[in-house]
Design goal:
Blueprint: H1 2-14, H2 17-20, H3 22-32, H4 34-61, H5 71-92, H6 97-102, H7 105-120, H8 124-151, H9 160-186
Helix pairs in contact: 1-4, 1-8, 3-4, 5-7, 5-9, 7-8
């Protein structure tokens, strides 16, 4: 569990700099240069992610149960993760209504993904992992929207094409992950 917690601290601290230390981030980007800053950020993030994966794998070997979620929560989690995949797609597909209205659909996708997994899992490791990401996503979204308002950010208007591509990419990505990749990568087959 210590490895998981260390990974969460490293990964989420790196991803929280804009929330808690925007001025420091700006100073470091100017001092190091854009490429060096992004390189360092990527290395720290990968170390944190590696520790999370390793630590979560170790914690899953000896689970400590806090509660046993009803079967219906797994179905709810499947539906919520579908929405999460569409939100993540919206972050990358230009000209969609979700991005135009929400501004930061990737962070919203993380929120929904984390909530879905909290509903469907009741171990200490799951609560630590997904609860941490949920809290981070709430704080990150709030900070990002505040920055947008302060800077007068306006996102491009949506197009029918952008909306259709967003939903199509999100649903297709979700299906591939839910029916094939989740079992292969995570060891749990959410769809059977």
């Amino acid at each position: 569990m210590d490895m998981l917690l260390t990974g969460l601290v490293v990964f989420l601290a790196a991803h929280s700099v804009r929330i808690f230390a925007e001025n420091w981030r700006t100073h470091m980007r100017e001092m190091l240069g854009e490429k060096a800053f992004k390189g360092a950020y990527s290395v720290v993030s990968l170390i944190g992610l590696g520790l999370i994966i390793w630590g979560f794998g170790m914690a899953r070997e000896q689970p400590v149960y806090l509660w046993s979620p009803p079967v219906g929560m797994r179905h709810a989690a499947s539906l919520l993760t579908l929405f999460a995949f569409v939100l993540v797609a919206a972050a990358h597909v230009p000209g969609n209504a979700i991005k135009a209205r929400m501004g930061h659909p990737m962070v919203l996708g993380v929120k929904v993904w984390a909530l879905a997994h909290l509903l469907a899992n009741g171990t200490v490791a799951h609560v630590a992992l997904f609860g941490s990401f949920l809290v981070w996503a709430v704080l990150c979204f709030r900070a990002a929207r505040k920055r947008d308002r302060a800077n007068g950010v306006v996102y491009p208007a949506a197009t029918v094409r952008g909306n259709l591509i967003t939903v199509g990419v999100g649903v297709l990505s979700w299906a591939v992950f839910a029916f094939a990749l989740h079992g292969w990568l995570i060891g749990i087959k959410p769809m059977g």
